[in-house]
Amino acid sequence: MTAPPPTRILLADDHALVRRGVRLILDGEPDLTVVAEAGDGAEAVARARAEPVDLAVLDIAMPRMTGLQAARELSRLRPDLRILILTMYDNEQYFFEALKAGASGYVLKSVADRDLVEACRAAVRDEPFIYPGAVTTLIRSYLERARQGEPLPARAITEREEEILKLVAEGHTSQEIADLLFISIKTVERHRANLLQKLGLRDRLELTRYAIRAGLIEP
């Protein structure tokens, strides 16, 4: 009986060294193969649209479009595509955002050599993967919230506002943001004003600090 073809993986991370290391891990397995790479979320979406891939492994903090933003877009464009989030952040909020964005797993870079292959195989089987250390924390946090009658944390800003916040923090002008997102400058300015009001911030510098804390850009 012939073995099924290997799972075709798209790997997205803005650090070439990280991509090389992760690729070595994945390509070392007979049932997994990296067929495409991307340096940011927007490029990842473009590659996934253009090439036959089965699984996308996305870093969270990337330029232009984060891994979470790319995951949301890919879930809409390619509902059949499996998605894993690869991250440095051991953060409960990101974990829930990743699941809401359509990811089936969340792998910490610090233990990628241990967990990533297993997470890829779980995703292909359409099973969720939670890195072992997160399970206790998540259950404890969930039970604590349930005891206090609290809901899960809501998103502070909309997906479009998040896109604009990221681009503002990266130093793009309103005109550049309008061109990148195919919207008018007036719309960009309105979203920007809404962001400042919603988040209680005063200027671009404070928006940038917020974007770093939210993991939208790296410091």
UniProtKB/TrEMBL annotation:
<dbReference type="GO" id="GO:0006355">
    <property type="term" value="P:regulation of DNA-templated transcription"/>
</dbReference>
<dbReference type="InterPro" id="IPR000792">
    <property type="entry name" value="Tscrpt_reg_LuxR_C"/>
</dbReference>
<dbReference type="InterPro" id="IPR058245">
    <property type="entry name" value="NreC/VraR/RcsB-like_REC"/>
</dbReference>
<keyword id="KW-0805">Transcription regulation</keyword>
<feature type="domain" description="Response regulatory">
    <location>
        <begin position="8"/>
        <end position="124"/>
    </location>
</feature>
<dbReference type="GO" id="GO:0000160">
    <property type="term" value="P:phosphorelay signal transduction system"/>
</dbReference>
<protein>
    <submittedName>
        <fullName>Two component transcriptional regulator, LuxR family</fullName>
    </submittedName>
</protein>
<dbReference type="InterPro" id="IPR001789">
    <property type="entry name" value="Sig_transdc_resp-reg_receiver"/>
</dbReference>
<dbReference type="GO" id="GO:0003677">
    <property type="term" value="F:DNA binding"/>
</dbReference>
<keyword id="KW-0238">DNA-binding</keyword>
<dbReference type="InterPro" id="IPR011006">
    <property type="entry name" value="CheY-like_superfamily"/>
</dbReference>
<dbReference type="Pfam" id="PF00196">
    <property type="entry name" value="GerE"/>
</dbReference>
<feature type="modified residue" description="4-aspartylphosphate">
    <location>
        <position position="59"/>
    </location>
</feature>
<keyword id="KW-0597">Phosphoprotein</keyword>
<dbReference type="Pfam" id="PF00072">
    <property type="entry name" value="Response_reg"/>
</dbReference>
<feature type="domain" description="HTH luxR-type">
    <location>
        <begin position="150"/>
        <end position="215"/>
    </location>
</feature>
<dbReference type="InterPro" id="IPR016032">
    <property type="entry name" value="Sig_transdc_resp-reg_C-effctor"/>
</dbReference>
<keyword id="KW-0804">Transcription</keyword>
<dbReference type="InterPro" id="IPR039420">
    <property type="entry name" value="WalR-like"/>
</dbReference>
